[in-house]
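Appendix B. Worked example

We walk through a single record from start to finish. Start with the input: the chain for Formate/nitrite transporter FocA (FNT family), Algoriphagus iocasae, length 306.
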Amino acid sequence: MEKEDKNLEADLKKQAAEEKRVAAEEKKKQKVIDKEIQGTKKTGKDLPKSHGEILRDQISDAQETYEKSPSSLFLSSITAGLEIGFSYLMICTVFFFFGGRMEEDAVFKMISLVYPLGFILVVLGQSILFTEQTALLTLPVLNKKQTIGAMLRLWGIVISGNLIGGYMMALILNWLGPRLGIFNSEVVITIASHVVDSAPQVILVSAIIAGWLMGLLSWLLASVRDTISRIVMIFLITSVLAFTGLHHSIIGSIEVFSGMLNSNEISLLDYLSFQSLALLGNAFGGAIFVGLIKYRAFVYNIISNK
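Next comes the structure step. The output line below is what the pipeline stores for this chain.
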């Protein structure tokens, strides 16, 4: 018995020593990564930013977001939800104007020309939109400057604010549109039905790709400096979302919520099902395909050269 106790004690000491060694190696590796990121040289004004420079700027911007007060984040998120509603205003107006004059499928494709408006307002106005921030807010966690819990809390605040702002805009526009004669409830129902008229697995995968594209948008915006280039980037990425019918959790929320207000055929369960799948897919696409891959590509390059 005494011998077994001694062996167990020896094993525990060996395990503790191994864990300490691994922790020391991880700490050393992290110092190398941080040094490389912080030491990345700035490129010339007329040259594109390097991978390391973009990553450093993204982590710095994300850290600033983490340091903001919850009330500030929440108000900025509500603002983003309201502003993205201007895309919905234009979607309904264009559909109403061209409906009957063109094939319905063609009208849905034409919507891609006005869909980017809300995103341009959000990004240039520095409001906080969940899908545009997903990959960005993942980077400090990967860089071990923030915890997963802190990231999830921040996501919760941003999502809540975006959805509330979207609900407010939906209520305003659904009241105003018919009274201005720019669209009617039939248009609202048609658009909502088009969004939810897919199998759950299709919505999920579609939302993953949409989140991937929005994460790339955040990355690309960090690589350019002038406003015109930023507008072009936003227009290109978001018009692809609209033209291909990919599912975006925030503007999609406004579309389906509005349809639920105007039709008994779109139930609360339909809305909740769509919203949960769209949020999950957008988060996964942005965090994994952009945040993780972009960060790990930089880290592997550093480690392999050491």
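Two observations about the output. DSSP finds twelve helices and no strands in the chain. Residues 52-295 form a domain with the Glycerol uptake facilitator protein fold (CATH 1.20.1080.10).
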